[in-house]
Amino acid sequence: MFTTLNKVLLGLVLIVIVAYFLQNRANTPEACANIDGLWDAQEAVCKTPTQQVIFQSLSKPHPVAIVYPDSERLVSLDKVEQIEDYVYFRGHYETLVKAASDANEAVYDRGSVYLNISKLTLLDKHTKDLTYFAAPFIINTAGNSVFVYVGLFSYDFTSQQAKHLSSALLGKRIREEEIILKESSVVKSNVFVQEGSIQVNFKSLGPNQTAAEYPTQQNEITLQLVALDPKDDKNAIFRRIVELHESWDLDHDGINDCEQQGNCDHTVDYSKAKVEY
Fold first, then answer.
1. What are the sequence ranges of the domains in the chain?
2. Of the candidates 127, 53, 17, the residue with the CA atom closest to the CA atom of residue 25
């Protein structure tokens, strides 16, 4: 009896020792750097990088849902897939468009959504409450076309949930998209001192290229990061910064007329003359 008890106690002691070792194996800045951790000097602990925290959370227990652009449809990305050198979260959607009849089969709107998590770009350094990130995502409309967007997302450290907040269309058959944080948003005493911005570089088909060719035309857009509140994400959106053509601002107040009319279209290039549309 005593021999068995001693073995149990010895086992518990070993578990405690191993747990202590694992907990403290990265409790120096050097050891933390060796495992790609983030060293918190105030708390003297090694923290998991935010990108890794988000990936681990969204890859299985808490999948993110993409809001299909120009609709309220939510597409849950519940699969992880590697394509070439990139890791994607993937989801599928299927909506009945027309029910089957005696003469015709049912018609469905089908497609897939891919979020390129390998190109996730953090937009702040928050490690509690909310943080924000941007990442490109692809919508493949069942072989009809492939559209590429940049999405704005929030991540809640408490609930471990991400939310898709806003989208910016890059175009069709886009390659080599790159997101660069130009300026972070600055909030002091619940007041936005500075709105941040990102630059998105990508390649699209040139005017003389066919759909079968690799895109070669270099493009660049700037997106303003609006209302990235570390406590509340309800107003957070992208706002594309463009040189507005005068034909879209008839009252010359510097604001696109469509914003007052409530009919702005993210697929329209407002830097070009209105007559072209």
1. 46-241
2. 17
Nearest of 59, 231, 51, 80 to residue 156 by alpha carbon: 231
> What tokens appear for 12 in the block?
């518990």
Q: Name the pLDDT band for 175 (thresholds 50, 70, 90).
A: very high
- Tokens, residue 215: 């895109």
pLDDT tens-digit map of 50-71: 888 999 899 888 999 999 887 7
199-219 confidence digits (pLDDT tens): 999 999 998 999 889 999 999
**What residues have CB less than 8 Å from 199, skipping those under 6 apart?**
179, 180, 182, 220, 221, 222, 223
Residue of 184 and 35 predicted with greater confidence: 184
In the numeric block, which tokens belong to residue 172?
């069709």
| pTM > 0.70: yes or no | yes
Nearest to 124 by CA among 189, 186, 62, 78: 186
